Amino acid sequence: MAINLDTLAFDPLTADPSSPVDGQVWYNSTDSAFRQYRNGQVRTINQRKFNSTTTAPASANDNTQGYDVGSLWLNTTSNTAYICKDATTGAAVWLSLAGGSGASPVGAKGDVQFKGTGSNLDAETASGHSLNYDTVKHALTIGPTGVNLTNNPFSANGTANSYVQSNVQNTSNGVTASSDLVATADNGNDTANFVDVGINSSGSADSAFTIIGANDSYAYAGSGNFAVGTDSAGKDLIFFTAGTLAANERARIKANGDNLQGPAALATNATAGFSFFPGSAGVPTGVPVTYAGRVPLTFDTTNGNLYFYSGGAWKLLDPTRGTNTEVSAAGDITTGSTTDTPATSMTRTPGAGTYQVVFSSDLSLSAAGSIFVSCYANGVLVPNSSRTHTRATTSMRTGVAVTCIATVAAAQAIDIRWRVSTGTGTMGNRSLSLIKVA
Fold first, then answer.
1. What is the DSSP letter of 288?
2. DSSP state of 84
3. What is the mean pLDDT of each run of 10 residues along the chain (438 residues)?
4. The CATH number of the domain where 334 resides is what?
5. Domain range spanning residue 311?
6. Could you give the angle at the alpha carbon of 409 between the alpha carbons of 406 and 414, nearest 5°?
């Protein structure tokens, strides 16, 4: 049997009945609400009303017009939808669901549109859980509004006395799985003109990316150069491993261009912390690429020699070169001392090390007897370094050479000393060479 709703009527009651029966329906004229009794409870029957018109709802569009909480209203002029939050008589509250235009209605092509006022879209602004669109800089911000940078379409902010992070996680542990942050150039894509910072999955075993393995991180450029540095004056570029403390520094490029490698001090019995450069099994013969102001180095592991390339050829790098010292003097000098005394100009202070000493000159004596020439290191006679010239009746210039090995510490001198047994000795042109051997 059909029921004609136009003729269905309920007696108005000024108050809910005290003993309703299950399924009973009535109209409470005091509260302007339909109610029913079901499963032991009195329930209000919502009177949701739907309206489509050319204007927006107002506070007078209330329960007296049949609207209730949840009623919908569509403004066909602005293509804006509203929902009733409160239908109190004379004080109805309607909330705008979204705004659009005649050409782009709400929800067209899956678009989500935001209010153009720049205000927060989430009421929980006090707790920092807000979604805000900056209509000036065209930036969408999640979290508390911070400094919206120029040309920054998206920003995620937070407030914490700890790190604030944005995370991307690939939950797959597949052999080619990774989690990546990627930026592309205007002509970039998945294979070229991009920069990629990421981490491999726990099961990574990608045959096309074997330079690292599972759970390893990376940063690289797909096409183009990759620059790492700091543009701040006086700031260094630092590399570290095995921890984040100062002691974990492994290399540092100073702001002034100095390149520091390894630890600040290496123990004599250290087994790690060294800088390595290439070696070759024999004398190098290849022609390396030339870079202005730089020279390549290689070590001949077969013969134990260090080479550098300069002037179009490989050259043996003598580890003693630059630490050798030599002095010479012209003209005669004389002595009548019978105890060793330094020969004029024949003293050198070469620095700490072991040196091969080479001295040469010519000697004569005014009377029958002997002239003695010796090498001293830090004021001490070097063993087996003395040379003797002896005359019987006639004195002639006789060449003399002294060679020995002498070891000195920093600021200690190596010198040639001489004496006579009788008469006056004469020493002519002379030279002293020190060649560092250790």
1. P
2. E
3. 53 84 83 80 77 92 85 89 90 77 40 49 48 75 74 81 90 95 93 95 94 95 92 92 90 90 85 88 92 89 88 77 79 95 94 92 90 96 93 78 94 95 93 90
4. 2.60.120.760
5. 279-284+294-316
6. 45
